[in-house]
Structure formats: C-alpha cells, structure tokens
C-alpha cells in the first residue's frame, strides 16, 4: 500500500534527473553509477522525514533501500560479488530496521479508513496496542538513522558511486549487456507464478509480489538506458508489474493485518463490543485477502503468461 503524497517530503529523483542520461552505447558501468547516485539521493531526501516519524518519509526510505538492493541483484555478475553481497546485506538490515514502523503505518491507515466510528471506539484497545508498538519502533528507527552503521552505509554508497567495483563485462555497451537482465527478471516472475492456485499458501503470493517489484525495477532501470523506443515498449510490462504489485500488496496487507488482529485477540479478554467489532473486522480482512488473490489469478496471471510480456527490450535500430 502506498502512502498519499506528503508536501513536506520532496519528490524522489528519477534515474536521469538533472544529469546526463545513460545511452545504449555507453558502458553498463554508467548505468550502475546512475543507479547508485539516484539511490543516494532518494535515501538522503527521505531520511529527515523518516527521522521525524512521517509515514511518507518512512515509506520512501524503506522503498529506496529495497529498490537499490533489487537493482544490485539485477546487475549480478557485472559487480564484484563480495561487495554486492555485503551492500545487499546492509540494505536488508536498513529495510528491516524501519520495516515494523512502516507495516504499522499501513495497518493504522487501513483501520482508520475502513472502520465505522462505533467500531473504532470498540476496537480502541487494539489500536492503542498497535500505536504503542509504533512508538517503540519509531525510537528504534531513529537510533538506527543516527547511528554509525547507517552513516557508514551512506559513505560506502558515495565511494562506490565514484568508483564502482565492477567486473570486465560492465565495460561493454548497455544495449548488449542490460536487456538480458530484464528477460531474466520476467522469466523468474513467470516461473514462480506458474501453478499458483486459490489454495496456494499466502507466502507464495507474497513472493510473487516481490518478484513483480524486482521485474519492474529492473525494467525501469534498463529501459531508461536503451533509448526512446525500448523505453516506450517497456511501459506495458512496467504497468503490468505495477498492477501485480498493487493487487498482491493489498493481499499481503490484509494477511498481515489478520495476523496482527488475531495475535492481539489471543493476548487476553476484551468486552462484548470489542468482540463483535473484531469479528466484523476479521471477516472484512479475509474478504479483502480472498478478493485480491482471485483478481491476480483470474486477470493478471493470464496476462503474465502471454508471450508479449517476456521482457524483451532490445533496440534493433
């Protein structure tokens, strides 16, 4: 679930904003540098708002860390393996350090919009419990963002952007090296989605969401370096990946919310009004999870299987 725009949080830069675009004949290393520099800017923009506890800042910071980790994985053997794996681990740590706060913001937004005034009053013990956890998580997140490990991560990114640790293949043109990365991402997404059914475990749909996000990020990254025509052709599959991400994001949000509510109910007894309201809440969450799962299976999975959505962006001009 994405947060509404917040005017106090500046817009994140696009990969080629205010800098020379990477072109199809440029070495792939230039696309790697663009990825790193854009990630640094995104993190630096989101950092102050996240430290202040603003949900949009937390969301953008977490997304920035996840996106760069995905792009590093997409570049694969173009990068020094030891450095890539180390940086991916640090970005995973950063995302995890702010993950609970973001998840609780999503829950709060869902409950505030989806419940009646009477239900919100009856469910106040649940909301207070979530808010207490959010406050505690916010303190932990601020310690993370003011700590030495985060500062060291930013310094490592700055150093890598100036002198990226790349392999020999990164010196070859983008038009030769980068398109197969997109095909690979979409092939993995289709392979993992094949065979999913209504009775597949919830975690399997969450994995597809992550694969769709990675395919989207990889496509956006590569398409911007291949020229106008491949970039235009990429729009269809980028939009498909975004739809999959949104629909299965709704599914995952509902599943997580179900787990949290059931956990709180198991902690102890509440009054009759609470139990009446919480049963209605649980029913709505189960319905939301079922509807989003079925929408993916009935409408999006068939589109994903089509040959035209294989992620081929080669520029034949």
TrEMBL record:
<feature type="domain" description="CHAD">
    <location>
        <begin position="25"/>
        <end position="305"/>
    </location>
</feature>
<feature type="compositionally biased region" description="Basic and acidic residues">
    <location>
        <begin position="13"/>
        <end position="28"/>
    </location>
</feature>
<dbReference type="Pfam" id="PF05235">
    <property type="entry name" value="CHAD"/>
</dbReference>
<dbReference type="InterPro" id="IPR038186">
    <property type="entry name" value="CHAD_dom_sf"/>
</dbReference>
<protein>
    <submittedName>
        <fullName>CHAD domain-containing protein</fullName>
    </submittedName>
</protein>
<dbReference type="InterPro" id="IPR007899">
    <property type="entry name" value="CHAD_dom"/>
</dbReference>
<feature type="region of interest" description="Disordered">
    <location>
        <begin position="1"/>
        <end position="30"/>
    </location>
</feature>
């Amino acid at each position: 679930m994405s947060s509404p725009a917040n005017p106090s949080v500046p817009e994140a830069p696009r990969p080629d904003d205010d800098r020379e675009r990477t072109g199809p004949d440029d070495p792939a290393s230039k696309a790697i540098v663009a990825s790193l520099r854009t990630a640094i800017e995104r993190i630096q923009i989101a950092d102050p708002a996240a430290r202040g506890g603003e949900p949009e800042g937390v969301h953008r910071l977490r997304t920035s860390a996840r996106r760069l980790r995905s792009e590093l994985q997409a570049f694969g053997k173009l990068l020094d393996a030891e450095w890539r794996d180390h940086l991916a681990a640090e970005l995973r740590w950063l995302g995890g350090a702010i993950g609970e706060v973001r998840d609780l913001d999503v829950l709060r937004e869902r409950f505030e919009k989806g419940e009646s005034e009477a239900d919100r009053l009856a469910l106040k013990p649940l909301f207070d419990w979530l808010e207490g956890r959010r406050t505690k998580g916010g303190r932990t997140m601020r310690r993370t963002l003011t700590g030495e490990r985060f500062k060291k991560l930013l310094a490592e990114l700055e150093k890598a952007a100036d002198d990226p640790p790349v392999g020999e293949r990164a010196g070859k043109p983008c038009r030769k090296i980068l398109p197969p990365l997109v095909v690979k991402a979409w092939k993995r997404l289709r392979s993992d989605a094949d065979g999913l059914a209504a009775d597949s475990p919830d975690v399997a749909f969450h994995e597809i969401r992550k694969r769709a996000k990675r395919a989207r990020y990889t496509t956006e990254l590569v398409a911007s370096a291949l020229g106008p025509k491949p970039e235009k052709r990429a729009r269809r599959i980028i939009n498909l990946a975004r739809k999959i991400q949104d629909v299965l994001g709704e599914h995952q949000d509902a599943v997580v919310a179900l787990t949290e509510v059931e956990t709180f109910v198991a902690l102890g007894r509440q009054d009759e009004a609470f139990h009446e309201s919480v049963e209605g809440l649980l029913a709505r969450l189960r319905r939301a999870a079922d509807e989003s799962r079925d929408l993916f299976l009935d409408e999006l999975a068939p589109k994903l299987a089509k040959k035209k959505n294989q992620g081929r962006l080669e520029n034949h001009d």
